[in-house]
């Protein structure tokens, strides 16, 4: 007995089909909302969701906890880099035995950390988004408490809050450490920075794959979205993937187009829109550059090859 598909079933199948296309293009964030009917279509939907989740976790999820830092404390500075206030838990964490207000920040930071924070401010003074900087706070007994920090210029008119140093704690934590070999610290920091950069670039790659249907924002805007600077983003992506972000985006959009041309009967005009191109001419020109044929020629040749 043949099963009669109604319009709702057809829409559900179409949604499943779209999810498969997204997975084939590398977007593992697409999810299907199952209905309450508990029929074979729902079963396929659940299995696709599970598969996407497993692939995503394998590629990107191993370090999810490390990417979600918690704020430990905040220290506010005036324009002369003197401490004006700090969050309530700061003295306990940094083992302060007296009030540090009106003291220069140089009394609580190592010389290298002060220079690193100043360099970070100078790198993009107009930006309120800064990258993490490993900072060593001086604690009792001349020990050091290292944690990733962000220094930001405050937007406002209060002269006592010109800058804010925000200290974070990641899931794996870092305990206060005594002064040790600077070489060992340097090697360890480089390894952590390299791992963090790889995670960042994987997230950027996933962002690109999730946006094959549209143009990408500028490098500066991408940097803001991923809390990094455009130079690090541009150079890091090229080094890791051997191509630029925008070239990668273009190639994947065209690969999605080729996939839809081969496996669907959608008109080229609709495929053009699904791949984020403004008009057929732009799509056809770039498609020919990558595949050596226009979209229509590509479809005809593929259809002949399977007959």
TrEMBL record:
Signal peptide range in chain numbering: none
Keywords: DNA-binding, Transcription, Transcription regulation
Residues spanning the membrane: none
Record-linked InterPro entries: Homeodomain-like_sf (IPR009057), HTH_AraC (IPR018060), HTH_AraC-typ_CS (IPR018062), PchR_regulatory_protein (IPR053142), Tscrpt_reg_AraC-type_HTH (IPR020449)
Domain of life the protein comes from: Bacteria
Domain named HTH araC/xylS-type: residues: 202-301
GO molecular function: DNA-binding transcription factor activity; sequence-specific DNA binding
Name by which UniProt lists this protein: AraC family transcriptional regulator
